[in-house]
Amino acid sequence: MIIPASADQQHEAGRGLLGASLTPREAELLDVTLQVLGETGYDKLTVDQIVARAHASKTTVYRRWPSKAELVCAAFIKRIRGQHSLPPDSGTLRGDLLALAEMIARDAEEYGRTVAGILAASERSPRLREVLVEDLRYDRKKQVQGVLRRAVDRGEIVEEVISEDLWDLLPSYITFRALQHKQPVPSETLRALVDEVLLPSLTRLPPP
Predict the structure, then answer these.
(1) What DSSP string runs through 62-106?
(2) Greater pLDDT, 138 or 189
(3) Domain CATH code at residue 194
(4) Fewer Cβ atoms within 10 Å of its own Cβ: the N or the C terminal residue of the chain?
């Protein structure tokens, strides 16, 4: 059945790297962070570059995000939430899963190495690592569960087939594959994941 919402409620209450809300200035800083990140990569990125581009002060940044890793994580999370909430409704579970898989694959290609770099840097800060994983997991879960909820509402699947391990399979495998092979995940791989793994699992119990 659908995963309990206790973790979701904690995030909605304001936990995580973005908190309950962002000021316009903070949102602008996160957008600039991604712009500079795309030009420099994570290792060469500095907060000085970001504040210079944004015409801001370091105090504004560090008041909300005490480290470069936290700042970049927050920018990445904001992008997922703002631009990639849910794919357009295709009318079928298969179409929605394929569209979501393509979205996750694009993110993994663009930001996978950045996330890996942040995770490596956060070895010195277990709390940062915990918050990053929680935030990434939370947002991907909302995406996948949104797609699965559509399918339940359309009568394609029943809630009983949705489990913690199953919803996590799509984003986890795609991100691992992108990092492991250091190249984009082919569309045929995404189709195989959907058609040969996810759909058989999700349709194993017939709708009433």
Answers:
(1) HHH-SSHHHHHHHHHHHHHHHH-S-----SSHHHHHHHHHHHHHH
(2) 189
(3) 1.10.357.10
(4) C
Give how many domains the chain has, as a whole number: 1
Per-residue pLDDT tens over the stretch 20-46: 678 899 999 999 998 998 888 888 889
- Whether 17 maps to a domain, the answer reads no
* CA–CA distance, 133 with 23 (Å, rounded to integer): 24
The predicted model scores a pTM of 0.72
Taking the C-alpha atoms of residue 51 and residue 28, their distance in angstroms, rounded to an integer, is: 11
Closest CA to 181 of 193, 191, 189, 192: 189
Residue with tokens 């700042």: 71
What is the DSSP code (8-state) at residue 185? Answer: P
Dihedral, 69, 70, 75, 76 alpha carbons, nearest 10: 70
- With beta carbons less than 8 A apart as the criterion, state whether 146 and 152 touch: no
Least confident window among 13-27, 62-76, 140-154: 13-27
pLDDT(138) > 80: no
- Per the CB < 8 A criterion, the answer to whether 143 and 172 are in contact is no
Q: How far apart are CA 88 and CA 147, in angstroms?
A: 10
**Domain assignment present for 184:** yes
